[in-house]
Amino acid sequence: MDKLHLLRLFIKVVDTGSFSKAAAELGFSPSTLSKAIGRLENDLGCHLFHRTTRQLILTKAGEAYLHTVRRLVDDLEQCETNLNQRNEDASGHLKINLPVSYGRRYVVPLLSAFNAQYPNITLDIRFDDAYVDMIATGTDICIRSGTLAPSSLIARQLSPIDFLICASPRLLKSSRIVNPEEFNHFPWIRFRFAQTGRLMPIMVANHSEPDGQENLDPGQQFIVDDGETLAELCSQGLGLTQLPHFIARDWLDAGKIVPVGPAFRAKGFGVWAIYVKRTFLPLRIRLFVEFLENTIQSQGETAYSTWAEQRYPV
């Protein structure tokens, strides 16, 4: 049994979570598969799994090995595919992870058109706002909004993020906001990052600051970790809030909230299509990212502009 075959067996066991499930999918007996993995472990001189009667867990060595060999096997398979595959023959399984709000508003409405153009690409979509280990989970593309942490991943910007401070028409009937100093006179609905517990600062333009930005820390009446809830509570007149353009749009169009001042573009914030750096980028990944870029551009947004800066100049 050659090394490449052993690597594929190892990845299959990880993906299925058990020897019995992997063996059933591969048409092997569990004992045959277990012996094959044992041979691989002997070659490496270490254990790849902690085996118990109920769980199969990767060891630290197994986790490190998986990160490397999954990429190697994927690159080899894609290299072979690219040698005999043309664009119109694009096929395969595409695993995509989407942030909840942006994914539902911007990506989901485009999927039927993508499917019509590339019917042989199967889409496996998950919604998650948390960090995703793309290599360990076998994720092909992550769409994420916010700032990027340093990494070896490739990130292509789909758009910047323009933030809008908003209120309900009802809240503003009794008061008119002229400048940020008056923000403290109002209750606020603040966003908290679920993973860190940190509150999102309220960002406004201030040209006297070196970076042209001032972070405000007004009092708050409500704290939530969901963008849609920010908009909903704001529409009910419970306070001011700061929304990214991709959440604010539908609520503004419906007249449920109104902007308080111009949009603000914070440095480093954007919406990104992220994928693992590979020698041979799978065709299905390239096609999806390019489709997303082109379709979003046709709707008035680019890597450098959004609809918000046109309606509420930054």
Automatic annotation (TrEMBL):
- Pfam annotation, one family: HTH_1
Q: Which GO terms describe its biological process?
A: DNA-templated transcription
GO MF terms listed in the record are: DNA-binding transcription factor activity; sequence-specific DNA binding
Where do the TM regions start and end? none
Keyword Membrane in the entry? The reply is: no
Which segments constitute the HTH lysR-type domain? Answer: 1-59
- Gene3D superfamilies, per database record: 3.40.190.290, Winged helix-like DNA-binding domain superfamily/Winged helix DNA-binding domain (1.10.10.10)
Q: Which domain of life is it from?
A: Bacteria
Keyword annotations from UniProtKB, A to Z: DNA-binding, Transcription, Transcription regulation
InterPro entries to which the protein is assigned, alphabetical:
LysR-type_TF_proteobact-type, LysR_HTH_N, LysR_subst-bd, WH-like_DNA-bd_sf, WH_DNA-bd_sf
What is stated as this protein's family in its record? Belongs to the LysR transcriptional regulatory family.
Q: Quote the protein name from its UniProt record.
A: Transcriptional regulator, LysR family
Source species of the chain: Oleiphilus messinensis
Organismal lineage = Bacteria, Pseudomonadati, Pseudomonadota, Gammaproteobacteria, Oceanospirillales
